[in-house]
């Protein structure tokens, strides 16, 4: 009688293990989407470093990081320390430092059949938004100051329309940002905001 009982025991253990595997599979959290891998060329690195240095100089906040990490670190520091209005002012100053006035005078308007064309530049995935996953930083350190800079320095209306679902963005040249801008009503990603969770950034917009 002992041998049948011994033979049945492993079968029960196997059945229990199978049930546990099924439960674990059903309750496992979905895996996050893989981060985009960026392979910066030498020119990309040069431009990123140049913009980062200008951002640090405009804010008075230095960091010792290199490449894109340096740019993100500068943006995070600005977002933590300064008010929303000051954030926009600092970024605008950095853009003015990065693009000297003699370059801006080379920009010319174009007309097609007597009317100005509305041009749309589509960015499939915004690297800045993907790196921070922060609505407030996207709006206050990119969208608003860039719109203002292009309007004031180039004399060209532009509306930047970020898509917070797929992290793409449209830059619509020739169009004034709407007063009822949906990007300014986008709620904070409080549960998945990298900037808030990892760097203590105030996510208000």
From TrEMBL:
<dbReference type="InterPro" id="IPR025114">
    <property type="entry name" value="D27-like_C"/>
</dbReference>
<dbReference type="GO" id="GO:0009507">
    <property type="term" value="C:chloroplast"/>
</dbReference>
<dbReference type="GO" id="GO:0010223">
    <property type="term" value="P:secondary shoot formation"/>
</dbReference>
<dbReference type="GO" id="GO:0016859">
    <property type="term" value="F:cis-trans isomerase activity"/>
</dbReference>
<feature type="domain" description="Beta-carotene isomerase D27-like C-terminal">
    <location>
        <begin position="107"/>
        <end position="179"/>
    </location>
</feature>
<dbReference type="GO" id="GO:1901601">
    <property type="term" value="P:strigolactone biosynthetic process"/>
</dbReference>
<protein>
    <recommendedName>
        <fullName>Beta-carotene isomerase D27-like C-terminal domain-containing protein</fullName>
    </recommendedName>
</protein>
<dbReference type="InterPro" id="IPR038938">
    <property type="entry name" value="D27-like"/>
</dbReference>
<dbReference type="GO" id="GO:0005506">
    <property type="term" value="F:iron ion binding"/>
</dbReference>
<dbReference type="Pfam" id="PF13225">
    <property type="entry name" value="D27-like_C"/>
</dbReference>
């Amino acid at each position: 009688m002992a041998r049948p009982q011994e033979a049945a025991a492993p079968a029960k253990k196997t059945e229990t293990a199978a049930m546990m595997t099924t439960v674990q599979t059903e309750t496992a959290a979905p895996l996050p989407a893989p981060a985009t891998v960026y392979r910066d060329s030498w020119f990309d690195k040069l431009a990123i470093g140049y913009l980062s240095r200008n951002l640090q100089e405009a804010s008075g906040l230095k960091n010792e990081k290199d490449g894109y990490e340096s740019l993100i670190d500068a943006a995070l520091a600005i977002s933590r320390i300064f008010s929303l209005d000051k954030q926009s002012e600092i970024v605008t100053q950095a853009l003015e430092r990065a693009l000297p006035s003699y370059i801006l005078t080379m920009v010319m308007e174009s007309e097609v059949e007597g009317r100005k064309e509305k041009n749309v530049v589509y960015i499939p995935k915004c690297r800045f938004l993907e790196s921070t996953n922060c609505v407030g930083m996207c709006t206050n350190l990119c969208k608003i100051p860039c719109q203002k800079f292009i309007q004031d320095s180039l004399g060209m209306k532009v509306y930047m329309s970020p898509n917070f679902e797929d992290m793409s963005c449209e830059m619509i040249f020739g169009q004034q940002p709407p007063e009822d801008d949906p990007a300014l009503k986008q709620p904070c990603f409080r549960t998945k905001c990298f900037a808030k969770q990892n760097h203590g950034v105030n996510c208000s917009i």
